Structure formats: C-alpha cells, structure tokens
Amino acid sequence: WSEHVKTWTPAAHLVVRFEDMFGRALLGVIDRLSEFFQREPRHAAVTLPPFEAFKAQHPQYFGGGTIGGWRDVFTDADAAAFDRVHGETLDRFYPEHKQALSPLRL
User: Fold this and answer.
1) In this predicted model, what pLDDT tens digit does every residue of 54-66 receive, in sequence order?
2) For residue 90, how many other CB atoms are within 10 A of its CB?
3) Could you say which DSSP state residue 9 is in?
4) How many CB atoms are located within 10 Å of the residue 101 CB?
5) How far apart are the first and last CA of the chain?
6) Residue 89: other Cβ atoms inside 10 A
7) Sign (positive/negative) of CA torsion 13, 62, 86, 103?
8) What is the C-alpha to C-alpha distance for residues 54 and 58, in angstroms, rounded to an integer?
9) What is the pLDDT of residue 102?
C-alpha cells in the first residue's frame, strides 16, 4: 500500500481522502479546493453523488464505502501488522490512525 501511495503523491498538488468527503469535513475540502483553484468557496452549491455511483465507475478503488470499514475486515493482529509495515505512510496521510490502534500498541 505504501509503495502505491508513494507512486502518485510526489506529483499530487492536493490530496483529498475518502474520509474527508463526508459531514463537516467536506467543508474543509471545499475550502482547500477553493484556495487551490483561487476561487471563492461555494459551500451551498456542493452535493456529491451517492457512494454507489463512485463505486460503479471505479470499483477497483472502493471497498465497502464506510469510514473505518477496515475495522470490520482486519483483526487486531492484522491492524497492528499493517501499522508496523505502513506506519510512516499512515502517519502522513492518516494521523488519526494512532487513535484507532492505541489499544493495540504496546
């Protein structure tokens, strides 16, 4: 996973995570995109298609469509192993992962 992320992030000017597209976090994404494109934010005009539409277009990129859905798939041992192998990349793009794994860390 880390190697995949490292292949495209050097060229990325802006990274928007799946988790950032929901709830109040979406307003922050709109602000970041507006700043990036040097436009005034238009929060009221933003609606996203349902998750199923995204998944139908690009099924290879989407799992179950729930934030934190990995918890339903990974065992505690799996999550700890993933963190050991990919911790540096997780720290960069998912700093909140440490809270999710805190009971697993010794």
Assistant:
1) 788 888 777 777 7
2) 20
3) G
4) 16
5) 24
6) 17
7) positive
8) 6
9) 55
Q: Are 30 and 43 in contact (CB under 8 A)?
A: yes
| The pTM of the whole model exceeds 0.70 | no
Which amino acid does the sequence have at 26? Answer: L
How many residues in total does the chain contain? 106
Residue of 22, 5, 1 lying closest to 70 (CA atoms): 1
- Report the distance separating Cα 106 and Cα 13, nearest Å: 36
Residues 15 and 67: their CA atoms lie apart, in Å, by 17
SS3 81: helix
Identity of the amino acid at 56: A
Instruction: Give the model confidence (pLDDT) of 7-28 as tens digits.
Output: 988 888 888 888 887 777 788 8
Cα 46-49-53 angle, rounded to 5 deg: 160
Q: What is the spatial distance between Cα 60 and Cα 57, in angstroms, rounded to a whole number?
A: 9
Q: Which two tokens stand for residue 41?
A: 């934010």
